[in-house]
């Protein structure tokens, strides 16, 4: 069969990796796909020193690539929102199929992109947008298609997981590890996207849509970062038999879909608790299959390229399929998306780890306990750490409680004269 | 679109689970697939008390189902070799697509089944044949299609993993735990298939084919069971920082493909070492993606049904695709399968754990060490366990060595006058 011609837009880390893997594994890929995949053109402002692009047409004008009549599939790897959106829309307008690794673009503009693609009868594939090289979108969308998904929870930001892993392994503080991660290139100069959970929320938004069949609703995601976690919290969690992970969690409840990214304490024996460093993993609970987990590198040139190329091969396979039989962008047929609302975070039920700083004085613990008791919050453990100072940390582990009730209790606790500083709280999930 | 009509042959554990999940999740599945999946007929010798089959045609003659002109897809869940083969061939002959959970059938007769399917232009899908509900065939075949796979290693028999987990957790002996597993229904009355690694070898044979693009060659698989592992081995492994898992391992080497199932010591921190009880997991190393892992329930009614139904949905999607664009049965195009030989196990390189029973007498350790040294086998650790008996266990951990050299050294060690009983050996992999 005749080769499929692709255009790569963006030749940075992922673009370079994609070019190189397509070239290196050309034969292996053709043995699988039954036809060759040829890079017809590259749109990039500069060369990538890791790539031998000799013999491939390179232009600084990515839109030229998107309009090139020779090209079947546009691979968008420039990142960001505005130009990427314009590029993808131009490609669709020109009847090209699109493969992208851009989580921000899909999470924020996916609904309109998919509608445009539907109209022009082209495919948009985005496996690389979530969890890098792990084929988790394919697993949920196709591999678990017989299930009603109950919930999913994932470590879907490698930078955050690297920081938490280092804090635990070496007893170091957040700021200290972040600086090292930046030096190592694991964290950006502006780490907000990673450490405040925005990147994870982009990915979670996508996972939730394909798991539950709801439109992409990034603006409804609850996002909390890891910058307030101290070395002491990490250690206390450990003493209680837990680990702190920055999880994206989405759960189907009777009243709506939970969509939340926050530091979470999980039992140390849980498989997710043993996913270390920059690795990613997504745990999915389906009504038939039970729990399955998908683990691997969540970022990097070639892991991401692996997902991009798998998408290209998939698109190639579906080129001749009747459009109604293609895998829908969001796993469910566009007309079958559900209107289940995203639940406000106040409705979420979880256990809590609380860390208070109190004056060491008789009766303080009793007052705190009675506030919790009045709010009908059951205490699993309460520990006053010994120090030789006047202010001592108190650690409380609660049973499951609705977030709204916990918020009210915390306001009351913080109002106590002997409680200093804000209460630190970390949600506890037993998964 | 008009519904897809399936026939289920076999209404035991998996057949019953498949019927029930198809019924319970009919709406969710149709929202994804874009059309309904209807059970047109069931072929089964008896009813399943867990299934409400009212309104569905049941016949004791499975071949009637395979020939039913109304049916698009035959789901083979009767298990075993001969009748299953005849059923699948009859279905193919009648132009039906086939979905099966039968690992033995695919591993042993897959090549001829796929050839027949190719000729009749029908699909044969078998996700449920390996690792139950985990979509690992899809992951390797489609999700990692951009990679050259280097190796894979998996816990792919739940019974064996349950036994090893119990031996470790409770310090119990093999025979003892096996009896319990049989009582719990985790192990068959005749446990040979599970504990001797035959079931795992069936699954490994399939995984190796789709990973490396080679024909199915079950007869070349090296198979070693767990019945010789003692509680002491489990404990010594633990003391050395390892765990014993019954792994299926397939690796691409320059001289051929390794295909082997045997007890294996792996570092306790490895994610695979933390897969407990009846759970399954497969670790895959690809040149672009690095390591990814897939975890979940490897057996059971509904987990297996989950994979069966995913296959049905996949077949439905590909019904209208050009046949050359369908996902090939063994991941690689039939004409592109490689002739890489399966390596004899004597060529495999790994570390070794050896347990010797020796007379407590000066110079024994030195003699053993010098035999290993003469074979150029480096020792990582050698420990003589203290007992109050005349015969004491000696534990040796070696560096990587070719199996043939180790075999020769063991023959010499066993010939020593002060070494009693056969040497126990467990391969060590660092994955």
From TrEMBL, chains A, B:
Its EC number is 1.1.1.3. L-homoserine binds at residue 188. PROSITE patterns: ACT, HOMOSER_DHGENASE. Keywords: Amino-acid biosynthesis, Methionine biosynthesis, NADP, Oxidoreductase, Threonine biosynthesis. The keyword tRNA-binding does not apply. NCBIfam families: PRK06349.1. This is Homoserine dehydrogenase. It comes from Amphritea opalescens.
